[in-house]
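ESCALATION

Customer reports they have been waiting on this structure for their group meeting. Please prioritize. Original submission:
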Amino acid sequence: MAISKHPFGRYQVIDRELSRKDWVKTKELKEIIEAELSIIVSERMINEDINAMKYDPLLGYSAPIEYNTYQKAYYYTDKNYTIKAFGLKENDINALMFYAKTINQYKEYEVFRDFTNAIEKVLDAVNIRKGISRLKQAKSIVQTEKTPKLTGSEIIPIIIQALDTNRVIEFNYQKFEDSAPKFTKLQPYLLKEDRHRWYILGKLEKYNKPTTTYALDRMTSVKILEEKFNPIDFDFDDYFKYSFGITVTDDEPLEIILSFTALQGKYLKALKIHHTQKTLIDNEKEYRISVNVRPSWEFYEKILGYGDTVIIISPDTIRDKMRDKIDQISKYYQ
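Update from on-call: job pushed to the front of the queue and completed.
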């Protein structure tokens, strides 16, 4: 047997034995480590390992190990402690717990299921005992928006495989206004979520850019072909820069001035309606902003949602379109 120079295997054995027994003698730890790791260790080395687990700031374990002089053995003062979380700090654990709860809303999507399960296994290994001992209990104090599982989510793994391997996909696609689906071949480039729906953006042979969009819930009979393609360099962040949702029009971006009530303005300062939002006026009577967008139906839907707390100041073309929509809506209530 070789003499061990690497302590982390020994730390794992020491942690396991202290976790499952009331106390463990140094001699016993020596015998278990030598048998399981096929190495030679001394009792002095084990004592040094325990001191490192307790005090070494680089390890960060701060293990609650004490020595029982009557039993002449070591023990954990906190039986819920373990180093199985690979040195995770409290903030790391809290972040993982929050992330696990947040991604939980996608647990019905096969592609995300392994992520959720993996995180829960790590948290289970930590045995968190800060008044919240299990992830299920933690869920009751963090509630995220629950959304129904949409048709099409089951093909996400297929889409991701095609994206990773630069392979063409084929499928049948039926728009809401069409009476029958149409056969489509697509070079996939980007999987994108917008308002809890999933879309694939890609390139058709007749186009030069990968900007054709398909909703996964309207795709059927999806297959990955052996046919591969050479992806072109395309900046999707820039492509969606002035969009208001998944729709990107061919229009040039417009600076739109919006005037909100002062109360509504407080919400907009906390959560912007668009990343281009700039404050123009902020007083007790008005909160006025500008946004640079390509107005799509999502834009008008968003502004209509603010009801009587917003007025479009300019440009006149956008004001006129909004007036037409409001006139049409008012007819429904006459």
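Sent to customer with the following note: The two ends are 91 Å apart (CA to CA).
Escalation resolved.
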